[in-house]
Automatic annotation (TrEMBL), chain A:
Gene: pyrB
Official protein name in the record: Aspartate carbamoyltransferase
Reaction catalyzed: carbamoyl phosphate + L-aspartate = N-carbamoyl-L-aspartate + phosphate + H(+)
Amino acids binding carbamoyl phosphate: 55-56, 105, 133, 136, 261-262
Family: Belongs to the aspartate/ornithine carbamoyltransferase superfamily. ATCase family.
Enzymatic class: transferase
Binding site for L-aspartate: 83, 166, 220
From TrEMBL, chain B:
Gene Ontology terms, MF aspect: uracil phosphoribosyltransferase activity
Keywords of the record: Glycosyltransferase, Transcription, Transcription regulation, Transferase
The EC number(s) this enzyme carries: 2.4.2.9
Protein name: Bifunctional protein PyrR
SUPFAM superfamilies the record matches: PRTase-like
Stored InterPro entries: PRTase-like, PRTase_dom, PyrR, PyrR_bifunctional
Gene3D superfamilies: 3.40.50.2020
Record domain Phosphoribosyltransferase: where: 6-157
Functional description taken from the UniProt entry: Also displays a weak uracil phosphoribosyltransferase activity which is not physiologically significant.
Lineage: superkingdom: Bacteria
Reactions it catalyzes: UMP + diphosphate = 5-phospho-alpha-D-ribose 1-diphosphate + uracil
Motif (PRPP-binding): 99-111
GO terms of biological process kind: regulation of DNA-templated transcription
Length: 305, 181
């Protein structure tokens, strides 16, 4: 494995499977009464969050604490960053505090990549701009594998705002590595120009793709990033690309529904679909802690680089 | 492999396990509250064999599981992160039971130390005992086995290799001469 986890595309198939298998063994830790392992005792993990993301930060924090690492949470609001400190100076400060790993969430694509050139510890990308979110893709793959048994040859459909979604890009790269076939479904305005070079299919017609899908992953409509008119109205989007009860009925009986959260119920996904037994949305949260434990263990559990 | 010799062949391993199974029954007065926990990979296989034998001898079906100790090792930082083994506890857990840890080779005692720490996070057994197929000496911690298949005097430069039918296709314990690495 690399020393950093910046992109899901950096993971070879063996690396990805090692992370999933490690997570499989660690899953039982969340079920026992003492949910703690001594493995990362004395190591320091810094959560460096320049964007708000309560669930991802908490998930990384829980994962690090279950491995007995010391956790320092650093959020940009009210910190030296709001006083004008550069990313590099922030990084050097954290380095001086002895951070063994930096988990970074940043609004600019590529920030974790830059950070990795400045610090000696491991850098874990917890979402950068519209680029990548590799641990989300790993937990999604883990959730799929637990429900479906395997990923080889499985048909995964990712629906929604691919343009602004780091989850979609990371998932396409990782699922392709793991042998699944990914189809992206979105209005043409919400697909990036480069999508033709991604290892996946593209469709504009959700109803045609649903009956052939083993997994349907709905992406959140990111209202905060909608600075232009990407679609005429929310209602029209919901009609054409929302997963409602009728569309849910068209899916194969054993197909599952996923959503990285937070959801807009009634917009991209109907409440009754989100709450059905075939929805993995709550599992995905629990699996998030497990997969992040696996990543932190594999990056920090061995000899120091 | 030229510098290795077999110290236990298949029949020897069979006899040793049979004796250990009898000893466990004797020492625990019928193994009524015993749980066998093997340390992966080969300890887990040996635990299953011991469980089978105890059932054959006395007709009691005792719970058998495995306990991975990787996350509790004291030498994690000396090597790149290792893949994890499988931990599987019996459904009724280990609280109030007599846990017999099973490993293939007892050497420095550090693996057993890690297993004791792991057990501590999983429950509270009334007692913990240790069974090992081979005790090769050179302890670095105050730990001893309750049941030993064979005491094997070794030099620190030598290596002990255990092969088991279920994993390796044959049963044997080899002593590999020093220098080979």
């Amino acid at each position: 494995m690399n020393r950093h986890l910046i992109s899901a595309g950096d993971l070879a198939k063996d690396d990805a499977l090692l992370i999933l298998d490690t997570a499989e063994e660690l899953a039982s830790v969340s079920e026992r009464s003492i949910k703690k392992l001594p493995t990362l005792r004395g190591r320091t993990v810094v959560n460096l969050f320049f964007e708000d993301s309560t669930r991802t930060r908490i998930s990384f924090e829980a994962a690090a604490k279950r491995l007995s690492a010391d956790v320092i949470n650093f959020s940009a609001k009210g910190s030296s960053v709001s006083k004008g400190e550069s990313l590099k100076d922030t990084a050097l400060t954290l380095e001086a505090m002895g951070a063994d790993a930096v988990v970074i969430r940043h609004g600019s694509s590529g920030a974790p990549h830059r950070l990795a050139t400045w610090v000696h510890g491991s850098v874990v990308n917890a979402g950068d701009g519209t680029h990548e979110h590799p641990t989300q893709a790993l937990l999604d793959a883990f959730s799929m594998r637990r429900r479906l048994g395997g990923l080889e040859g499985r048909k995964v459909t990712i629906v929604g705002d691919v343009l602004h979604s780091r989850v979609a890009r990371s998932n396409v790269l990782l699922l392709h590595t793991l042998g699944a076939e990914v189809t992206l479904v979105a209005p043409p305005t919400l697909l990036p120009v480069s999508v033709g070079s991604w290892p996946c299919e593209v469709s504009y017609d959700l109803d045609a793709v649903l009956p052939k899908s083993d997994v349907v992953m709905m992406l959140r409509v990111q209202k905060e990033r909608m600075n232009a008119a990407y679609f005429p109205s929310e209602r029209e989007y919901s009609r054409r690309y929302g997963l409602d009860r009728d569309r849910f009925a068209k899916m194969p009986d054993d197909a599952i529904v996923m959503h990285p959260g937070p959801m807009n119920r009634g917009m991209e996904i109907a409440a009754e679909v989100a709450d059905s037994a075939r929805s993995t949305i709550v599992e995905q949260v629990a699996n998030g802690v497990t997969i992040r434990m696996a990543v932190l263990y594999l990056l920090l559990g061995g000899e120091s680089a | 492999m030229s510098d290795s010799r077999a110290v236990l062949e298949a029949p020897d391993i069979h006899r040793a396990l049979t004796r250990i199974a009898h000893e466990i029954l004797e020492r625990t007065k019928g193994a009524g509250d015993v749980v066998l926990l093997g340390i992966p990979t080969r300890g887990a296989t040996l635990a299953r064999r011991l469980g089978d034998r105890i059932r054959q001898f006395e007709g009691v079906k005792i719970p058998v599981g495995s306990i991975d100790i990787t996350m509790y090792r004291d030498d994690l930082r000396l090597k790149p992160a290792r893949p994890l083994g499988h931990t599987e506890l019996p459904p009724d857990g280990i609280d109030g039971r007599v846990v017999v840890l099973v490993d293939d080779v007892l050497y420095s005692g550090r693996t057993v130390r890690a297993a004791l720490d792991a057990l501590n996070d999983l429950g509270r057994p009334t007692a913990v005992q240790l069974a090992t197929l081979v005790d090769r000496g050179h302890r670095e911690l105050p730990i001893r086995a309750d049941y030993v298949g064979k005491n094997l005097p070794t030099a620190k430069s030598e290596k002990v290799r255990v092969y088991l039918e279920e994993i390796d296709g044959r049963d044997a314990v080899l002593l590999v001469k020093g220098g080979a690495q």
